[in-house]
């Protein structure tokens, strides 16, 4: 058979196997999983009493009890070789009900470190690049060099020269340690999370409206009649939200994307709509829909009267928050924030919002837009449909501020935001794993918007400007994940391996001196901390590569996309000397002389972090308080809650008064031996929520029962197309150029760091691929299976403009006038798949395929309002290079359409 | 075809008695021997493990119409042993017949065991599951096209003798099992 060489048997865990609970390491949904480990050499039997699942094999369908061969692997427990089986929790009543799972989660076992298996190349020792070659060194040497050179850089160049680029999601214990070091101890503004050039909002327009982007529970999606989904197909990237919560009941889904996917095909087949949009034009679509709704009077006026802020409420209440913050100038002073009346007048006056004009700009048939407007808003028998609104990166990674603000306003006039089945939320990418120990020190940021508005850093531009001397990269590829990837790689190369100052012996004094000389001459010292050696950051640029312990190798915690907090149990040993990120941070911090890093274990970090999340939506402080009252560790109390967990913010109450259904869904613990109880929170902004009085450690934030604005009401926004149109016009493909946009498929998680070690997945996707419409393919002589190349010689890159003084100074037009835009180059290769799933004129490719990053073709000019990239708006010219082996080899890849719904 | 469709529980459970889940023997075979003459673009000397399975007549070449799947049970009637035999009209990995386009696969989705007996999509040579929308490419050894299966669709090894098509082995693990069943006659 094919390369993945399937087995026809799988060992069953014996009845006495160790059983632990966890949640999936991958997408936002965070399905509950059970992990079975037992020493190799023994196996359970097929009778219910002979195996740890307690079921007869063969198992029945839809029970979630089957163990597929990809759910089995081997691992090391306390130094001894064990079998490991990881399956979705068949007993789960929330999230993934009855053991439903995605292809990603179903193959979790194959990510586990196995010294003889495909994961044997996990990083297991600290390494130093000596004489150009990565060489194992001790933790002590690595950390000593880091600390000494760091202190030198901080003393000589200041905090803005010392930077970190890290994941924002890989467990509370680690992100708390990262933020404590960066923001509390070092106080550096030179920090950026994995997916953006600096900290701050992902979807500022939603936030400015007063909507928390993770306000909804999954149950809300199931209770909606209509869901308007912008810029994502949850089937493809957050499966279980779709298959367990959206596919249920008689529901109409509307999906807006430039490429049809499996979920969009299902939507069409089940009474919903697919709106094939031209990349970057979502704002126009939202305004056209709003205009149709307002012209016909379909808006939910009662909701608007009760829950939408008036002009006076916006201005007197400082808009959304305090003065001199990025959101203040957006919501106040009449620039963008608007009362309903102002919003209505503005929308009705916009030419681009006229149906025919909008159809022309968006490329969506006018009749489809009309039908969509009716579906989401037109009352049926006098009742407004229960419509919910969901969005992801296709929306906010193409025109960040205007798309999100116009989307939120559309949702609000339809009456969505705070009721069962009528919610507005992100569907999410990564799980919610950030726990901030301190706020980002914006005051030290080198960036400033017009007026007196300090702005978060654009770290990539800061690097290219030669201002960063030290970079600690944790769990992200950086270059491939950011815009104009190839250009960024050149910068890193010239600042590291391009420097004459290279370490050539494993000696602390020597290494420190060499690195000091390098940074003195404008070079950079890079530490890359990860679970595998990643290219190029680890394999080519880093002076130190540090091995991290990960999921399953330490007790960790985090929340999923409905704020459900679970314990991710440790069940096996990390490879060699690999350590959890919090431990590595602590060792470094202690060498730097920073106080309060004496954590014994990850529970210590978890409990300490709790106090810093009390005002946030991920607040679990009452759980730690409750655990301490009952004489338990926080992690252990959470372990009791298994895969069900508890939805944050966790609230402490003397007596629970919530209905059983609410408690069972949100999670609760009412220990008869402990005073009081804790309960989770199902939905935010909910005016009907039963809060009672604040009790014990519970904090009643306004957004629990109202919107997150100063007045507690939702704020509508005008979204003038002119704020974006100059840039959009400049980057719109001309001649034989195409839009090049990117996305995800179920089978691949992010950069394939695990998937590239799963033969099952590399059989399906051995290489990057590029989807092209049949008409375009014919014109270029391209067939499915051909090897193709896309080049873009017109990659726009913002080089300066850190400080803006005048109102329009950050605009693309002014940046260009002031000489702050340069033109770079990028290219990528892939195997062509000819399909009418993509629009003509658009090429679609997988976002983060290693070795051929789609982001090389993407302009590095962030949204001037929010500093967010337009990752989805790349462009380029395509040409055929030849034929790939997969064109004729029937054992790998498939060119069949992904839009077939049986 | 399809006489056990919808068979979810009791009658199927009762039929387990016909099956012996302990495989009598596991043999290592060369890939070229599993799919003789039809291994494409890969090392025919690659070895794979297959259990020893019965040789069962599942159809006649002369009676097989293109894109009209035939349902059969393999290695015997039992839980999740439903399979489909189909002439694709397109060369396929592991295909038999003159055009190497006759293939057979398990009809149980490897995601959660959904019944795909009616899931053949002639236009694209796919087998699809309506439960969670997984689809498999029958021209390429049952590779997952889209969806949530964690295994390729188990492929049934076929042989043709005169006009008769025989099923001789399973490559892959049938949904629900910890090891593939074999019939008592095996």
Structure, described:
The complex is a heterodimer of chains A (902) and B (186). Chain A has 902 residues and is an alpha/beta fold. Chain A is built from 30 helices and 32 strands. In chain A, the strands form eight sheets. Chain A has a seven-stranded mixed beta sheet with strand order 6-5-19-18-17-7-8. A six-stranded mixed barrel of chain A has the order 27-31-28-30-29-32. The longest helix of chain A has 19 residues, at 139-157. The model of chain A is unreliable at 319-324 (pLDDT under 50). With 186 residues, chain B is mainly beta. Chain B is 5% helix and 33% strand. Chain B is built from two helices and 14 strands; from the N terminus they run αββαββββββββββββ. In chain B, a hairpin with a 4-residue loop joins strand 8 (120-121) and strand 9 (126-128). The longest helix of chain B has 6 residues, at 10-15. Chain B is globular and about 40 Å long. Chain B starts with 9 loop residues before the first helix and ends with a strand. Classes of the chains: A alpha/beta (902), B mainly beta (186). Chains A and B meet through helix 28 of A and strand 3 and strand 11 of B.
Question: How is this fold's topology laid out?
Answer:
The complex is a heterodimer of chains A (902) and B (186).
Chain A: E1 18-23, E2 32-39, E3 72-77, E4 80-88, H1 103-106, E5 127-130, E6 133-136, H2 139-157, E7 162-166, H3 172-186, E8 191-193, H4 204-209, H5 218-223, E9 226-230, H6 234-237, H7 239-246, E10 252-257, H8 262-269, E11 273-276, H9 282-296, H10 301-307, H11 311-316, H12 326-331, E12 337-338, H13 340-348, H14 355-362, H15 366-377, E13 387-391, H16 393-396, H17 400-413, E14 424-426, E15 447-449, E16 453-455, H18 459-464, E17 470-474, H19 485-495, H20 508-520, E18 525-530, H21 537-541, E19 544-547, E20 556-559, E21 564-568, H22 581-591, H23 602-610, H24 621-629, H25 634-640, E22 646-647, E23 651-653, H26 660-666, E24 668-669, E25 677-679, E26 716-717, H27 722-731, E27 738-743, H28 759-764, E28 769-772, H29 774-779, E29 786-798, H30 812-817, E30 821-834, E31 842-846, E32 874-883
Parallel strand pairs in A: 7-8, 7-17, 9-10, 9-13, 10-11, 13-14, 17-18, 18-19, 27-31, 28-30
Antiparallel strand pairs in A: 1-2, 2-4, 3-4, 5-6, 5-19, 12-26, 15-16, 20-21, 21-22, 23-25, 24-25, 27-32, 28-31, 29-30, 29-32
Chain B: H1 10-15, E1 19-20, E2 26-30, H2 31-34, E3 47-51, E4 56-60, E5 70-73, E6 82-87, E7 102-106, E8 120-121, E9 126-128, E10 135-137, E11 143-146, E12 155-161, E13 164-171, E14 182-183
Antiparallel strand pairs in B: 1-14, 2-3, 4-13, 5-6, 6-7, 7-12, 8-9, 9-10, 10-11, 12-13
């Amino acid at each position: 058979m094919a390369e993945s060489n399937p087995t026809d048997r799988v060992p069953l865990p014996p009845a006495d196997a160790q059983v632990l609970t966890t949640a999936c390491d991958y997408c936002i949904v965070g399905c509950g999983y059970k992990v079975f480990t037992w020493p190799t050499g023994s196996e359970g039997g097929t009778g219910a009493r002979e195996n740890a699942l307690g079921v007869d094999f063969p198992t029945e369908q839809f029970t979630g009890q089957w163990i597929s061969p990809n759910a089995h692997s081997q691992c090391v427990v306390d130094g001894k070789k064990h079998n490991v089986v990881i399956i979705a929790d068949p007993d789960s009543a929330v999230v993934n009900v009855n053991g439903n799972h995605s292809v990603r989660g179903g193959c979790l076992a194959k990510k586990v470190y196995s010294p003889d298996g495909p994961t044997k190349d996990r990083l297991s020792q600290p390494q130093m690049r000596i004489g150009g070659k990565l060489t194992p060194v001790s933790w002590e040497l690595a950390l000593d060099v880091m600390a000494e050179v760091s202190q030198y850089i901080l003393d000589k160049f200041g905090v803005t020269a010392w930077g970190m680029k890290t994941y924002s999601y890989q467990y509370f214990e680690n992100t708390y340690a990262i933020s404590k070091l960066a923001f509390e101890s070092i106080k550096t503004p030179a920090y950026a999370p994995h997916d953006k050039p600096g900290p701050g909002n992902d979807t500022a327009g939603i936030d400015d409206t007063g909507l928390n982007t993770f306000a909804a529970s999954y149950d809300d999606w199931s209770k909606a009649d209509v869901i308007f989904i912008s810029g994502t197909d949850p089937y493809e990237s957050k499966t279980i939200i779709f298959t367990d919560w959206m596919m249920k009941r008689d529901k109409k889904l509307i999906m807006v994307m430039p490429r049809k996917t499996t979920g969009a095909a299902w939507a069409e087949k089940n009474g919903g709509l697919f709106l094939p949009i031209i990349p970057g034009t979502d704002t126009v679509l939202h305004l056209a829909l709003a205009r149709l709704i307002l012209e016909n009077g379909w808006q939910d006026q009662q909701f608007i009267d009760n829950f939408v802020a008036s002009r006076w409420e916006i201005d007197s209440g400082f808009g959304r928050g305090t003065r001199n913050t990025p959101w203040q100038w957006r919501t106040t002073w009449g620039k963008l924030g608007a009362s309903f009346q102002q919003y209505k007048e503005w929308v009705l006056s916009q030419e681009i919002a006229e149906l025919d004009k909008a159809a022309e700009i968006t490329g969506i048939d006018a009749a489809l837009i009309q039908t969509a407007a009716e579906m989401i808003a037109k009352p049926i028998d006098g009742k407004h449909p229960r419509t919910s609104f969901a969005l992801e990166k296709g929306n906010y990674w193409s025109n960040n501020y205007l798309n999100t603000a116009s989307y939120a306003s559309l949702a609000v006039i339809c009456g969505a935001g705070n009721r069962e089945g009528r919610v507005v939320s992100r569907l999410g990418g990564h799980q919610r794993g950030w726990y901030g120990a301190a706020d980002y020190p914006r005051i030290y940021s080198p960036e400033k918007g017009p007026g007196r508005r300090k702005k978060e850093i654009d770290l990539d531009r800061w690097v290219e400007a030669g201002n960063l001397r030290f970079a600690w990269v944790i769990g992200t590829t950086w270059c491939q994940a950011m815009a104009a990837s190839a250009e960024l790689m050149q910068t890193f190369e010239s600042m590291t391996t391009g420097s004459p100052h290279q370490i050539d012996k494993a000696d602390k004094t020597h290494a420190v001196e060499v690195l000091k000389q390098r940074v003195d001459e404008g070079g950079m010292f890079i530490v890359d901390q990860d679970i595998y050696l990643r290219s190029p950051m680890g394999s080519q640029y880093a002076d130190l590569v540090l091995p991290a312990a990960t999921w399953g190798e330490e007790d960790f915690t985090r929340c999923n996309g409905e704020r459900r907090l679970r314990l991710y149990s440790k069940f096996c040993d990390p490879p060699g000397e690999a350590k959890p990120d919090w431990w590595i941070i602590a060792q470094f911090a202690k060498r730097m002389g920073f106080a309060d890093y004496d954590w014994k274990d990850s529970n210590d970090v978890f409990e300490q972090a709790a106090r810093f999340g009390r005002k946030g939506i991920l607040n679990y402080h009452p759980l730690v308080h409750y655990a301490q009252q009952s004489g338990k560790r926080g992690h252990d109390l959470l372990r009791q809650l298994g895969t069900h967990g508890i939805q944050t913010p966790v609230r402490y109450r003397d007596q629970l008064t919530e209905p059983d259904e609410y408690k069972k869904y949100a999670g609760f613990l009412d220990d008869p031996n402990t005073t009081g109880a804790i309960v989770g929170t199902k939905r935010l902004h909910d005016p009907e929520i039963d809060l009672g009085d604040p009790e014990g450690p519970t904090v009643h934030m306004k957004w629990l029962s109202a919107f997150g604005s100063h007045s507690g009401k939702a704020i509508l926004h005008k979204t003038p197309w002119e704020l974006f149109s100059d840039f959009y016009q400049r980057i719109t493909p001309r001649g034989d150029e195409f839009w090049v946009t990117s996305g995800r498929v179920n089978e691949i998680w992010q950069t394939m760091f695990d998937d590239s070690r799963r033969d099952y997945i590399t059989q399906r996707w051995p290489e990057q691929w590029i989807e092209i419409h049949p008409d375009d393919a014919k014109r270029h002589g391209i067939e499915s299976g051909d090897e193709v190349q896309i080049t873009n010689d017109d990659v726009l890159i913002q080089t300066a403009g850190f400080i803006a003084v005048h109102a329009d100074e950050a605009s693309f037009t002014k940046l260009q006038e002031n000489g702050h835009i340069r033109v770079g180059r990028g290219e990528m290769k892939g195997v062509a798949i000819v399909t009418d799933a993509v629009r003509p004129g658009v090429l679609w490719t997988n976002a983060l395929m290693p070795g051929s990053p789609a982001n090389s073709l993407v302009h590095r000019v962030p949204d001037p309002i929010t500093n967010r990239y337009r990752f989805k708006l790349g462009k380029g010219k395509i040409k055929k290079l030849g034929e790939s082996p997969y064109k004729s080899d029937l054992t790998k890849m498939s060119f069949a359409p992904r839009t077939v719904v049986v | 075809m399809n006489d056990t469709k919808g068979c979810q529980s009791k009658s199927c459970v009762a039929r387990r008695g016909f099956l012996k889940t302990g495989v009598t023997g596991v043999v290592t075979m060369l890939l070229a021997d599993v799919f003789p003459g039809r291994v494409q673009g890969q090392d025919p000397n690659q070895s794979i493990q297959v259990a020893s399975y019965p040789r069962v007549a599942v159809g006649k070449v002369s009676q097989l119409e293109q894109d009209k799947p035939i349902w059969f049970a393999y290695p015997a009637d039992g839980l999740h042993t439903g399979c489909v035999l189909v002439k694709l009209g397109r060369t396929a990995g592991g295909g038999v017949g003159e055009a190497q386009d006759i293939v057979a696969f398990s009809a149980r989705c490897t995601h959660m065991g959904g019944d795909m007996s009616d899931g053949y999509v002639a236009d694209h040579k796919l087998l699809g599951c309506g439960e969670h929308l997984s689809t498999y490419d029958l021209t390429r050894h049952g590779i997952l096209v889209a969806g949530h299966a964690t295994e390729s669709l188990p492929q049934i090894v076929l042989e043709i003798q005169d006009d008769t098509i025989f099923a001789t082995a399973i490559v892959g693990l049938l949904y629900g099992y910890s090891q593939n069943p074999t019939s008592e006659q095996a």
